[in-house]
Amino acid sequence: MSKSSTLSAQENEFINSLSSPQIHPLPITLKELNDEISLDSYLEKVKSNSIGYLVWSRLPVKIYIDEENHTNNYRISIEQLRVNQWISTVKKAIFEWSAYLPIVEISNIELAEIVISRAEPPLNTENNSSNKNITTIKAKTAQTSYKFHICNNILLHQMMIHISSNLGEISTLSAARHEIGHGIGIWGHSTDEKDALYYSSNKFLAPISLKDINTLRQVYKRPTRIGWKVFNSE
Hints:
Elements: E1 4-7, H1 12-16, H2 28-31, E2 61-66, H3 77-97, E3 103-105, E4 114-118, E5 124-128, E6 131-138, E7 142-151, E8 154-163, H4 169-183, H5 210-219
Helix pairs in contact: 3-4
């Protein structure tokens, strides 16, 4: 039986217990891409911290769509249709990304590596610099976060994605493409509105672009501590 524990990546003792960053074999779906598919990327915008790049070493990536909190009121047919449309749209985005990285949807949340919830992202608050008594609330319609854990002496991570239930179909698809892109390893943003990982939402429904794909490929060629042994996990 595996043993798991949640960890904080900011602790020096935790960082010191990890192996040096190493490069995993390139996933076959990315390896088989034509080298000339795109010479351009925004890799320089993708963040790498002391852990390294947030890549998946165990494939396919297991995704769970969490609809538990949104299936209690199926007596209301309009709400049922909205839920079904949201799920269908998110699955479309998963299918699109699965052409470039193996992804499988699972029905057991306990085994999930990425959990997608039909829920409002947590509100971010910040103090107003001119008046400390005023707190500004930053609302978001979608958000991705991550956490680390150890399983069988291997450092792993889990991604949590929240996508609002109040978006229309097009906006849901745009948000799902964007957040799943983060979830599978592109922890950064493009400055080109034609890319799915464009830093801001806009009216243009950007498909997964060649630049998005090439950026994903470049990320998976970079070193990480994720997926490698932890030396002192006891």
